[in-house]
Design a protein that fits this description.
The longest helix is centred in the C-terminal third of the chain and has 30 residues, at about 160-190. The protein is mostly helical and about 250 residues long. The chain has helices at about 15-30, 35-50, 50-60, 65-75, 80-85, 95-105, 115-125, 140-155, 160-190, 220-230. It folds into 2 domains: about 10-105, no CATH class; about 115-230, no CATH class.
Length: about 250
């Protein structure tokens, strides 16, 4: 017997999850002054699919409903308190909290993301940026937001959400270009070995035995970035059809 499903076409929104979050769910929050359970966990899964069970347990432990929690966030006017309301829940760190708040308040919050941090450090003097994407604190998050706002203004990027996407894309492109450069270097050198750095996760040392201390591709920073991506870091993305948040 065939199953009857009403309005089957509406489920397409979960395929284009990012668009659904920042259009429909964002507007629903403004109208309803809270998020539904489905809306809340859509954000959690988009940002960090592997964290959803921990977040669920944290919500149950808090004895607060999703509606109560997100309505408290709506009623609070202080950004630091909004962040704290979420991070007080076991399983919700600053990266996940920032994703929820970015959907709910896209003009006021941006997503804590290691790719965006990498881009900020590349655009400005890296020594000035004292932000470690593996160790977020509320103070460092708001410092990070300040850098994002500065870039938004300097480059006329419109909104914090647009700035987030641009910074993510800039980091992605740099990684992509490093990969292509490594391929070219390998072809030119004729090397078929991986590398001699003994770093098993070092994709930036891909296929070339580079001993040049001034090489812009095989740097410790690039190795660390690759490790963060493959060892989890603070962000994860399992929704392959949308912007990768890891």
């Amino acid at each position: 017997m065939q199953k009857t499903i009403e309005n089957l076409n509406t489920y397409e929104q979960y395929y284009s999850l990012e668009e659904y979050l920042f259009n429909e769910i964002s507007e629903n929050f403004k109208s309803n002054k809270s998020l539904t359970e489905q809306e809340f966990f859509s954000i959690i899964i988009w940002k960090s699919n592997r964290s959803k069970t921990k977040v669920l347990k944290g919500i149950l432990k808090s004895k607060k409903s999703i509606e109560e929690l997100t309505n408290d966030i709506f009623k609070t006017k202080d950004d630091k308190e909004r962040l704290a309301l979420l991070t007080d829940i076991d399983g919700i760190g600053i990266p996940i909290a920032s994703a929820v708040l970015s959907v709910c308040f896209p003009k006021d919050f941006t997503i804590a993301d290691y790719r965006a941090v990498d881009s900020i450090k590349d655009i400005y003097n890296e020594e000035e940026i004292k932000i470690n994407p593996d160790n977020w604190t509320p103070e460092k998050y708001f410092e990070y937001r300040g850098w994002c706002l500065a870039i938004q203004k300097q480059f006329n990027l419109g909104t914090l959400r647009e700035t987030d996407k641009v910074l993510w894309g800039y980091s992605f492109y740099r990684d992509l270009q490093n990969l292509v450069d490594s391929l070219k270097n390998t072809k030119n050198s004729g090397s078929t070995k991986i590398c001699l750095c003994d770093e098993p996760l070092c994709a930036k040392c891909l296929a070339v035995n580079c001993t040049d201390e001034n090489c812009i591709t095989h740097t410790q920073e690039n190795k660390d970035r690759w490790k963060r991506r493959h060892e989890g870091g603070n962000a994860d993305n399992s929704v392959v059809h949308n912007q990768s948040r890891t």
